[in-house]
Amino acid sequence: xxxxxxxxxxxxxxxxxxxxxxxxxxxxxxxxxxxxxxxxxxxxxxxxxxxxxxxxxxxxxxxxxxxxxxxxxxxxxxxxxxxxxxxxxxxxxxxxxxxxxxxxxxxxxxxxxxxxxxxxxxxxxxxxxxxxxxxxxxxxxxxxxxxxxxxxxxxxxxxxxxxxxxxxxxxxxxxxxxxxxxxxxxxxxxxxxxxxxxxxxxxxxxxxxxxxxxxxxxxxxxxxxxxxxxxxxxxxxxxxxxxxxxxxxxxxxxxxxxxxxxxxxxxxxxxxxxxxxxxxxxxxxxxxxxxxxxxxxxxxxxxxxxxxxxxxxxxxxxxxxxxxxxxxxxxxxxxxxxxxxxxxxxxxxxxxxxxxxxxxxxxxxxxxxxxxxxxxxxxxxxxxxxxxxxxxxxxxxxxxxxxxxxxxxxxxxxxxxxxxxxxxxxxxxxxxxxxxxxxxxxxxxxxxxxxxxxxxxxxxxxxxxxxxxxxxxxxxxxxxxxxxxxxxxxxxxxxxxxxxxxxxxxxxxxxxxxxxxxxxxxxxxxxxxxxxxxxxxxxxxxxxxxxxxxxxxxxxxx
Amino acid sequence: xxxxxxxxxxxxxxxxxxxxxxxxxxxxxxxxxxxxxxxxxxxxxxxxxxxxxxxxxxxxxxxxxxxxxxxxxxxxxxxxxxxxxxxxxxxxxxxxxxxxxxx
Lengths: 558, 103
Hints:
The complex is a heterodimer.
Chain A: H1 3-24, H2 30-35, H3 42-53, H4 56-69, H5 74-98, H6 103-110, H7 114-146, H8 151-201, H9 206-209, H10 223-233, H11 246-262, H12 264-267, H13 276-312, H14 322-329, E1 333-335, E2 355-357, H15 361-369, H16 374-412, H17 418-441, H18 447-471, H19 477-501, H20 520-538, H21 544-554
Antiparallel strand pairs in A: 1-2
Helix pairs in contact in A: 1-8, 1-16, 3-8, 3-13, 3-16, 4-13, 4-15, 4-16, 5-11, 5-13, 5-21, 6-7, 7-8, 7-16, 7-17, 7-18, 7-19, 8-13, 8-16, 8-17, 10-13, 11-18, 11-20, 13-15, 15-16, 16-17, 18-19, 18-20, 19-20
Chain B: H1 3-34, H2 36-39, E1 43-44, E2 47-48, H3 49-91, H4 93-102
Antiparallel strand pairs in B: 1-2
Helix pairs in contact in B: 1-3, 3-4
């Protein structure tokens, strides 16, 4: 059996599993459709949250990004896990106690205002759409490289699968498919890591192999020392040292943390468990499941970088293995023999460097670079698809609930029946799948940049509004609305200014306090908080009913 | 439910959250970003300590923090429930008689 057949087999098996689960878990009421009936056990919710959270970006791109960023890649690792501490301590238990379906539900009720609700709906839809396009594109890349179909066909297959279980099962179907998808993706991520760690260091646990000595075949010495040495010799930055300024790393990390805690598709997962206690437990499970991948990823990054340099540096172009040629045809590896010696010069100096490797392929190509068995390579493909589809489904559900529940039921058509609302929810997910599929096939060139956008915006809009709403009784609607508009507006303007209007001056000298657009969400969060507190102080206190809501959600119980 | 015990519950809750967030900040922003270079002078196995904290240690600390939080809050909830139960028993004669009957 070759890679192709293994891949078809694994993809077929995993997709059949997802469809089977979808048929078994159809939703029959809006409560089942929005929050899986509110009866998901914490362990299952922890897995579903982990799969929901770990997207194509975590699975495919993150280790690759880290292997090129070295120590600076830390902001992804800490940012995307540290946010769970904020979520578990500051948001999840209280929002569960509040006991409605969506984030705009909380904002609208806590700030007793339809405008606040609609601003929240707007933010939730923008953030989720931006994010879902990246997932569809990720699924498309995987399909086109490994199943050798056109990207369009790949996206269509992905759309069909997501459509099937999301429309049929809503949150219930999505939750249980995500549990299955977590198992597939974590297995697919760790198995090749264990293989490579064993091969290079003789250590089966990648997290330990990361700090272990290389085997004789790889030249001995500690892996990280060797990687530092090779990087310096070729003119790259030292792997274990930082290149970016401390304040920029600080701000990016904080923006990713606040953003994580403010992303609506993650928050709504905590509405699906039976009670507050289970909300805390499932946050704990979720972070454990996420940490398995997130502590493996930096090890994979170091292994992959070492392997890549070993394989290509100063090697004959014609002697390159098959994977090299295959990725060349997708243009994700490009080689330009500048000095015409037939050898690959892979060095830090851009004027003589001849090889350009797209960061996104490091995880996908890693098993091939390390010459692992065919079934492991096929497994990685199934894992990458699981990661992309599970996140896409969670995001589509947010879009659907925002439209059917927050806009129709809670704002414009309060009298519609449960049946009608369910129909609208399914219709909304259907349209959202089509739109996301379109952007997956014809992605705007700036998708990667726009995803960073989603985090900054979530951080600067939702996070302060929710936290202040829980922890400060005096917080009122005027403050919350002013804060959300100021935070969202400032962050969006800063990113658009540097990334889209003036990309030529997008550098450290022009940035405000040396903060890159990726990290500006942190400043947006601070602005939101300050504006909200100042405005709230100058305007009347919230009504008594609202103070009572706050008192109620602060206490334990169902 | 007495507003007094509700208040003290909330205060203990805030204390727990604040102290855990302090550890959260020190482990991530402190060890992984602000003091990473200083910690790098310490080595164990093939790791520099600062680098290890940034790419491994901080994540492990996060997991432990949430687990500690779950434990502390369970305890606090149980204490709050029993405080409330005591108050209700003290206030209500019927409850007291029932208790005596049981004993």
